[in-house]
Design brief:
247 residues; alpha/beta; Rossmann fold; seven-stranded parallel sheet; 43% helix
């Protein structure tokens, strides 16, 4: 039980990578608060599965781009579980466009609000409750290093997450709080299937010639949240099937 009696707050945990991380953490002994945007049914299913394991769980609906919602989510988590040990910033969105001329301003702003601004706001709200040994884990992407011809703004936010992670790790070091990130390659999630379609060929397919499953990626988060990663901060793990990245 690598996370026994730990309190965890995860955004975007109603499906995909966030769901797999939430369930894995619960199996390892953690109580889990689930932040979701709109899929109440999905979030409730994850919560009930966690409770069936004998752990505590709550669901929190809202937009991480709302600073007040971020503050309330952290406060409710602490009130329910008594503390906050691990924050996982996983919520995100993407709107593909084949050329920069086709990018819509509203989608650009929504992508930045969801992927990086909301991440910073929630981390700001959570930080006063974190202590020595606590951990922040951010979801970035292989696109931060490779780019993606149809995801210009999305890739830009993922690059920003890498810089945010490294910078916050420096600031958090005196408090003994570790800040890291996970940069998956192509993963079979509802978001990617909705964005590109199940049958669309992925030109960034990794050397393993298949997309990862969310469960395969979730173990990287578990490692970073556990005591096994006690000497790791300001780093990015790359569960990408063998994609070569620089930086």
């Amino acid at each position: 039980m690598q996370l026994e009696k730990k309190s965890v707050l995860i955004t975007g945990a109603d499906s995909g990578i966030g769901k797999s991380v939430a369930l894995l953490f619960a199996k390892e002994g953690a109580d889990v608060a689930i932040v979701y945007h709109s899929d109440e049914e999905g979030a409730a299913k994850v919560m009930n599965e966690i409770i069936s394991m004998g752990r505590k769980s709550i669901i929190l609906q809202g937009d991480v781009n709302d600073a007040e919602f971020c503050k309330e989510s952290v406060e409710k988590t602490v009130a329910e579980f008594g503390k906050l040990d691990v924050l996982i910033n996983n919520a995100g969105t993407q709107f593909p466009a084949k050329s920069i001329e086709e990018l819509e301003e509203k989608n650009i702003r929504k992508t930045f609000d969801s992927n990086i601004i909301g991440m910073i706001l929630l981390t700001k709200a959570a930080f006063p409750h974190l202590k020595q040994g606590s951990s922040v884990i951010n979801t970035t992407s292989a696109t931060a290093y490779q780019g993606h011809e149809e995801l210009l703004d999305y890739s830009a936010t993922k690059g920003a997450i890498v810089s945010f992670t490294r910078s916050l790790a420096l600031q958090a070091k005196p408090k003994g709080i570790r800040v890291n990130a996970v940069a998956p390659g192509p993963v079979a999630t509802p978001l990617t299937e909705e964005t590109f379609g199940e049958d669309k060929e992925d030109t960034s397919r990794p050397p393993f010639e298949r997309n990862a499953t969310p469960e395969e990626v979730a173990t990287s988060y578990l490692f970073l949240a556990s005591d096994q990663a006690a000497q790791i901060t300001g780093q990015v793990l790359h569960p990408n099937g063998g994609i070569v990245v620089n930086g």
